[in-house]
Amino acid sequence: MIKKIKEIFEPYMIRPMIYMCVMKGSTALVLAMLWNHWFNKEGYFSFVEHAFFFAAVFFFMLAWFQYLRFDGVSLGTLTAGRKKKEKRHRSKDIADFADEKIISFEELEPEERNVCRLLTDLICAALFLVPSLVAAIL
């Protein structure tokens, strides 16, 4: 499996992975903060220990689903009726003036998208699991 990921992974896939990590990580952080504000008013649970652990488990679950999709398992009928989004033309972007071609997530091949999602979910899971475990130990 790791060998197959190494064959598919290319350096131009790092930018979409960073964007996805920031988006998913910030969303999970906001949800954890909302949980702490609305449901943990009494302070019975540690914010980092419990909320971050739940976020890490959620990201591991997403990574597992991407692993299954990477192996060929798909939802089939649930995704058959969806239409593909139309690409918007960006006319005033700094990338228009750069020499190198910046590849977005939508321009990647389906196998490359699966690898990006899998690695992004694993990175986010690790980023939330480490503080949770440190808070549990201390």
Tags for this entry?
elongated; mainly alpha; 138 residues
Protein architecture, described:
The protein is mostly helical and 138 residues long. It is 64% helix and 0% strand. The chain has helices at 2-8, 14-38, 47-70, 77-80, 110-137. The longest helix has 28 residues, at 110-137.
Low-pLDDT sequence parts: none
For the termini, the CA-CA separation is 35 Å
Overall pLDDT score: 85
Q: Residue share in helices?
A: 55-70%
What Rg do the Cα atoms give? 18 Å
- Helix count equals 5
Layout of strands and helices, then pairs:
Layout: H1 2-8, H2 14-38, H3 47-70, H4 77-80, H5 110-137
Helix pairs in contact: 2-3, 2-5, 3-5
Task: Give a nutshell description of this structure.
The chain is mostly helical and 138 residues long. 64% of the residues lie in helices and 0% in strands.
